[in-house]
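Please fill in the sequence for the structure shown.

STRUCTURE ENCODING:
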């Protein structure tokens, strides 16, 4: 115990302690993510510390493919299972592919809940022609539904934790249509020197609100609200009234 105390005291201001082991920012940069910037490393170290994730046990992964690309901080789906087990409230779970082969379904039993928690993921919503999804689509879908379902069933213990690599890849793919969509963004010609009216295009302003809501609420809440209203992307919303209704649902979920 004395040796551990001495070791912990040696930790620097940017280092973190994970399961009595010092994880230094220098180690993370040298062995795990050499391309990460100082700001990205600082963010990663805070996430590692906040959720007590050990990067050297592959509980969290730092992914950066080039110096110009942003860093992705992801966890393996097994982390969700271990954290749920640790609560002592997990009373069994089951994941399966539905008979029609369209959905991955997760059922979770909690000791303190009367009814089981069920969550589904549609394979077509996450399979975007990625190589791995083409090879093992059912296994990949099961990993996604496990991650999403356990986060929702154990929000106090797991909520806010980084997403899995399988989810992150799809969220990044899906964000492109919303960013690039020109729907509702056609502008009338303006006179020379005339400044654009910020409220002239309320539909575009609404899409910007959805982009902000996605960042604030997180993909789980954001896509759940869209899915509940029969939408995959915000740019599928037809009217301002419909968009405001969904935005209110997202806000209500955050306030709950």
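FILLED IN BY: designer on duty
SEQUENCE:
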């Amino acid at each position: 115990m004395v040796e551990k105390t001495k070791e912990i005291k040696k930790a620097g201001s940017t280092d973190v302690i994970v399961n009595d082991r010092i994880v230094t920012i220098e180690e993370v940069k040298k062995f795990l993510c050499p391309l990460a910037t100082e700001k990205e490393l600082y963010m990663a170290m805070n996430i590692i510390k906040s959720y007590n994730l050990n990067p050297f046990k592959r509980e969290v992964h730092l992914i950066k493919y080039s110096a110009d690309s942003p860093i992705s901080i992801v966890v393996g789906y097994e982390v969700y299972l271990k954290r749920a087990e640790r609560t002592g409230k997990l009373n069994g779970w089951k994941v399966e592919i539905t008979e029609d082969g369209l959905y991955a379904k997760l059922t979770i039993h909690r000791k303190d809940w009367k009814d089981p928690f069920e969550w589904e993921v549609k394979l077509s919503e996450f399979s975007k022609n990625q190589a791995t999804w083409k090879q093992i689509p059912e296994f990949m879908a099961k990993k996604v539904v496990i991650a999403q379902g356990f986060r929702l069933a154990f929000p106090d213990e797991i909520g806010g934790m980084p997403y899995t690599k399988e989810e992150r890849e799809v969220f990044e793919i899906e964000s492109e249509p919303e960013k690039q969509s020109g729907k509702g963004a056609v502008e009338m010609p303006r006179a020379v020197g005339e400044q654009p009216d910020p409220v002239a295009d309320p539909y575009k302003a609404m899409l910007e609100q959805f982009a902000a809501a996605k960042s604030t609420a997180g993909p789980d809440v954001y896509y759940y609200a869209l899915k509940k209203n029969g939408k995959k992307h915000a740019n599928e919303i037809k009217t301002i009234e419909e968009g405001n209704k969904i935005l209110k649902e997202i806000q209500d979920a955050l306030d709950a």
